[in-house]
Structures are given as structure tokens and as C-alpha cells.
Write a structure and sequence with these properties.
Blueprint lengths: L2 H10 L4 E2 H11 L8 H13 L3 E9 L2 E8 L1 H27 L5
Antiparallel strand pairs: 1-3, 2-3
Amino acid sequence: MQEATFLILTALASGSQHGYAIITEVTEISGGRVRLRAGTLYTALDRLRADGLVAVEREEIVDGRLRRYYRLTDHGAVALRAEAARLQANASAALARLRLAGGMA
């Protein structure tokens, strides 16, 4: 799973959000390392919807513009949980090897 996908799903794990809120949340979660552009986000959301990982929860008009709220699906939560476990296992393995090698861990 690409980092941006992981971060988008992580942002939606706490509840439904609209696009700008997802962009803001991803920046916060990543400590400012990842700053999604709107085009990148909506391309990713379209792909995630097609894959059944996110769904549109509702739409509303705000200041004359459509605001779409996305939510994590059950399938998306399973995929996010699996990826988080995989990343955690990899990080644990790296830290253990660093300890064995006398590195800083």
C-alpha cells in the first residue's frame, strides 16, 4: 500500500471527512512530510471507492459548492489494520536487527 493511501485511510479511521479535512489530517498525521494536492487526493479517493475501501457518506452544498464526505468501509478498515500490522512488524524487525548490530535503537 502506498504511503498516501495508508494516510488517507488512517485519516478516515476516526470518522467521515470531506476532501479538505482529509488533506489537513494527512498533513498532521505525517508530521508535515506528506502534503496532498487536491488532484492527488481525489484521484486516490476515486480509486479507493472503486476498490471498496472508502464510500461516499453524504453530500452537501456549502457556499454554492458540492462538499462530499467520505467514510472508511469495513473492507477499508480491514485493509488498514492489515497494513498497519505489516508496517509494525517490519519496524520491529528493523529495530531488533539494529540492536543486535549495536546500532542505535
